[in-house]
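Q: Predict the assembly, please.
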Amino acid sequence: MTAPMPAPALPEQRVRNERLRLRLQAIRTFGRRFASRPDGVIGIVVLLIFTLLAIAPDLFVGPLQTATTASGPSLSPPTAANLLGTDELGRDILNLTIHGTRISMVIGFLATIVTIFLGALVGIVSGYVGGRLDTILMRITDFFLVLPTFVLALILAPIILDLVGANSEFFGIRVTLLVIVFVIGVTSWASTARIIRSQALSVKELAFVGRARVIGSGPGHIMWRHILPNVMNLIVANTVLVFGGSILTETTLSFIGLGDPFAPSWGQVLNAAESAGAMGLGAWWYVVPPSVCIVLVVLAFTLVGSALDDVLNPRLRVRR
Amino acid sequence: MRSPLRDRIARTVAAFGLALAALLPAATIVHAKDILTLRVGTVEALDSLNPFETALNVGYEVFTLNYDLLVNFGPNNDPVPGFADSWTQSADQLSWTFHIRDGMKWSDGQPATSADVVYTYNLELQGTKNGGVVGLGYLDPYLKDSFVTAVSAPDPSHVVITTSRPTSKLTHSYIPIVPQHIWKNVTPANINDFLNNPPVVGTGPYQVVESTSQYVRLTRNRYYWGKQGAEDEIVIQYYPSAPDTMVAAFKNNELDYIHSPSAESFNQLKTAPNTVALASEGNGFTQLNYNTYTKGGGASTTALQDPLFRQALGYAIDKPTLIQKVLLGYGTPGSTQVPPWEKAWHTEPNDLRTFDIAKSNSLLDAAGYPRGADGTRVDKQGKPINLRLYTPNTDPSYAKDAQFIQDWFGQVGIKVSAQVLDEGTLVTDEALDTTKPIKTQLDYDMVIWGWVGDPDPNALLQILLTSSIGSTSDSQWSDPQYDALYDQQNEAATDAERKMYMDQMQQIFYDAAPYDILYYDNNLDAYHTDKFAGWQNQPVQGGAPFFQDGSINYTLLTDATLATPAPSVTANPAPQSSGGTVAPAPSVAPAPVPTDTGSSGSPLPLIVGIIAIAILLVGFIGLTRRRRAAAEDDE
Amino acid sequence: MGGRYFIRKVAGACLTIFMIVILNFVLFRMMPGSPDRILLRNPNVTADSMAAARARWGLDKPLIPDQLVDYLQATAAGDLGFSFKFHGEDVTDVLADRIWPTVILFGLGEILAIIFGLALGAYSGWRRGGPIDYIGNGISLILYSMPYFVIGILILGVFAIGLHWFPTSGMLTIGGGDGTFGGQLTDFLAHLALPVTTVAIGLIGQYSILMRSSVIETLGEDYVTTARGKGLTSARILRSHALPNALLPAVTLIAINLGYVIGGAITVEVVFNWPGLGTLTVTALEARDYPVLQGIFLLLSVSVVLANLIADLIYGRLDPRVRS
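A: Predicted assembly structure:
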């Protein structure tokens, strides 16, 4: 007897290989389409630069300057020694701004995760399951939508800080920052949930979902394997926009006074500038760098987000 | 072709514009062109016109303009005639007789007599009987600390106050004399609801005629018994949360005087034209306090209860650097709880601690806190010492102090983690509630905060009493000897005796170091000199014109634009206490026509606003209807 | 408009409002540091006066049910209580003082943003690809990415502090103007100019982008080619098709905006020291003035609910698909 022939690749194996090939092709197409949008590309480049700065600020400007390690005279304009001038304690503004990148980006990133996670979860479940659960969830979502998010944030912050209390750090992140993350997440998830839900509603009607149900797949399985991948495009586009929005919200909250002077974000630097009376003193170097960074980053997210949105969710265009 | 949208938008905007115009404030002030207004800016917003209900500096400023105290504060905080123009103490020192100025009138023309004093003081006496409070209770100590037993008026010109112990505090009392005929229905039970709306009636030099959320406006009291300043009106404007805007307004000549600009802005104002920028000694301090509670609570180490530990740490604080870097030099290094502003009472302690890292290290070693393997010191239970430092979010300078302290304490082996907390949270952390279990309370190690005192040092001394635990005590410190000395100094018969006890209290406090007083903050003020002249300071040496104690400096201003200083305006020539009645002279300045009063808005603006919004809605609906019609046209 | 739709929407709004009222109470009572405690920073305060303050403000009664029931009853009767910070004043009075400055500021700002935004967007879309389009789009995007207060600080710095063209803060010059109505109006408008510009600039981007896409979309439609063939001018097409197309989403945008705009209100008002609800919120928050905070929270939430309700009703009226 001869050795048994190698078994042909099992059907599942073949399907998986095919799926992988299609996915790679889709990614390549996506990449090409995205690259043809100059605004999206610019946005990505800007974000990459800021991400680099956020990951390793020490590499670029050294450790965060504190009151004791301040390098220059108080409120001096830009000089060779301090390229962006100094604040009222003599700390280098360039140093503060670069370190602020990390704080602002980390807060934005974590807040986005919270927002998207909550929003997608509620949106998908509500959209797919429908019925009474949908009504209840939507009622709750609407409720969160009408709450004055800003006032709510101001109120929640001391409450949460009081509850969480003593520990100063969780996983290397100060509690005050985590509080802001939570507050932004709680107040932003509702609009994401609404958007995802409408998409889930339409995906639900697609044929393969019906088929999956017929063959007996459970709702969890369907939501995970069928609904989620088909709303993923929307989620991705939304994530980027939410990230930009989180940074804006964090900046405003810090400016009002919820920031942490010991881990200053851009908004906190602006708050310190306002307290020191920077504008009245003509200390434009205190106000301009953080503002420019905020605008650049949020703008970049907006550009990337809308480019993504166009590429991933093409609308039917009428040919002229 | 018509353009419906443009029409509609134009009409809507016009409607809104009309609504806008109608919504202008109802206070249509009719001004004679030559009214001289003194415009003052401060960062606090007035909370109440009722002197018994205000907790803020600006509230005190307003009521000392409106009312006289029985005895006013003079240029050096010395007693000068107020409601009473002279006073004597009996031979046994247990009774005071005050002579009420003859012919004095309230600002509404009614006669002001001793009955008003009796009314006011009895309001306090009745209210504080059996542990009660009058209003917020901030004015109560002035009678309680003076051991007053009874107040009576043998005739309209005399008031007799009897005390159970000899005291001189009656001539330093912040209680304003209020008119019985206006306040007659006010009792301790309902005083909280008495708003004291404008026009306020008092015997002070200027009376409130208008009070809004943005400012308070005072005008001359035509019946004032004394000298008034050149200003016809005083407007105090509030800039809460916006000190920068206040400074900008000052530089723009929208304000004549500002109180508490930031130190950086202050520096710039020093070189501005026609401007005096004044840094004066303040009656208060900023402290670093430890959680010294010995009966439990959330302190992270027992080392905090050890005075040797706290003393050693005191050598690791470089106060001159803090003052230079954080306050830009506007302060003096701290020592005892009685600020040097109290020239008669402050005493520098023995064994003054200076910045000496080496000494701090050796003292910590000697006190039994050796360094562990990683350099962090361990306490007597073997736990590494890691202190939490909390600061309130009300003042950015506290967080800056904290950064320095974190670094210095790190150099002597004490790890510090700092955090800014919301004021409400911090206050709750520090206040012990004896009705609740101790385990979850007092969850802090160190706090940076501050206090502002009264003309009498009692206010700051009593923060450290055992009885203040649960209310004003930041440290939960308790020392029976200190408590006993407090009563002794309060009951002392002579100033010399009082000082003796107070010196001991200061030394005990300094040695035990439950608080390390970082510095005594300066007051920062600035004013223009081209519109008003005659600016005086209180105290005369090293004080500031306004926001001190009393309103005397408002009455000393002259008009800087006049070639020769005009004689200061007098509504009535000041009658002497020995004289008979003096016919009041008619007031000199044109009194502005009093206009509307009260601070609440009328419902009219709201109604008009709703109409405007309704117009907008109608516009939109009508417009979209047109769109459908137009679309149908085109199909 | 379908009756069922109407009733459903209104009932939903009422339920939301009720939930807000409850949350209002719970949230503020959870805040650490009750108002009597805040009084502690005056050295003359004693345990007695604190206890008296607590009793007077009803804070010594158990939270649930006593305080909650009191609060619900009072709110239903329209009594929002007395302010803790402005001792003795009605919350309704405190709010009434501050409402209309905020309404003016944001109402006018929103209107200006709509007018100029729609105009800019229309022009950009019409001359698509032209220089105005790119510049306009770019500026809109940049402004959209700026927090309100940054715009405010820059405007304040340049026009008030730098150029002295406008007063720096507040709403009126006290004792200012010449006493005539015209003088007062001018003074008011001078103070209003910078803050209202800030708000309008912050909002203009969205409307311009919205209008631009609407115009582009409209121009691509078949019936436009037909209309052109029929001889209608471009301007007429713009006005009767593109503009109305954009207005409907604009209406919903206003309602959605209300929530975010209120957030911006706080910062713009703080920067310009504008005496509206924003600065009141900050003051009340520092003083833990629960009744005032609750009043503001209630007012804002109810406004947003009503605005959304109105937007829903308008939509329902105009778009039959929604009603089913």
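The CA atoms of residues 100 and 264 of chain A lie 6 Å apart. Chain A touches chain C at residues 139, 142-143, 145-152, 154-156, 158-159, 162, 244, 248-249, 251-252, 255-256, 267, 270, 274, 279-280, 284, 287, 291, 294-295, 298-299, 302-303, 317-318, 320 (CB under 8 Å).
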